[in-house]
Amino acid sequence: MYERFYSPNLMALASSQVGEDSLSHQPDLAIGVHLMDRYTFYLLEFLEDIHPASKSNMNDLFKVCPKSQCVSTPGHRTDLFLRDPGSVLITDFFGSVRKIEITMETINLTDPIQQVELREVMFKVDWGQPACIKT
């Protein structure tokens, strides 16, 4: 499926190639279904070991489930990605840092006057002929 992508700065992963099955890993005997495929299991196992100081990069992520473990051929596509995946840390790709400002002041996030006005407008709606229907 990722062969159809064309937007810049995308990286894609697949648990198997076209024509292959992505095989199940572990069943939940209580409900009688498999919870995830092999690729997802090993990917999750890899990501659970990542911590803020990890030096693992995206190329390491591409190796999480070799064919011998997945019993399928995982794939990835990086030609649309604008950087070398080997230089992109997992923590940078999946992580997010937001600049915040801590304040001790109380900030009122709702303006009571606007709420009353909004309520008045809501009850004055004219439910006449819908504009999307031509008469």
Tell me the layout of helices and strands.
Layout: E1 12-14, E2 24-28, E3 33-37, H1 38-48, H2 58-61, H3 67-70, E4 75-77, H4 90-94, H5 112-123
Antiparallel strand pairs: 1-4, 2-3
Sheet with the most strands, sense and barrel status: 2 strands, antiparallel
Spatial order of the strands forming the largest sheet:
1-4
SSE string, helices as H and strands as E: EEEHHHEHH
Which percent range fits the helix content? Answer: 25-40%
How many runs of DSSP E, i.e. beta strands? Answer: 4
Radius of gyration: 25 Å
Keywords: Signal
Protein name: GPI-anchor transamidase
InterPro entries: GPI_transamidase
GO molecular function, one term: GPI-anchor transamidase activity
In short:
With 135 residues, the chain is an alpha+beta fold. It has helices at 38-48, 58-61, 67-70, 90-94, 112-123; strands spanning 12-14, 24-28, 33-37, 75-77.
Structural overview:
With 135 residues, the protein is of the alpha+beta class. The chain has a domain at 2-94: 2-Layer Sandwich (Alpha-Beta Plaits), CATH 3.30.70. The protein contains five helices and four strands, in the order E-E-E-H-H-H-E-H-H. Strands 1-4 form a two-stranded antiparallel ribbon. A two-stranded antiparallel ribbon has the order 2-3. The longest helix has 12 residues, at 112-123.
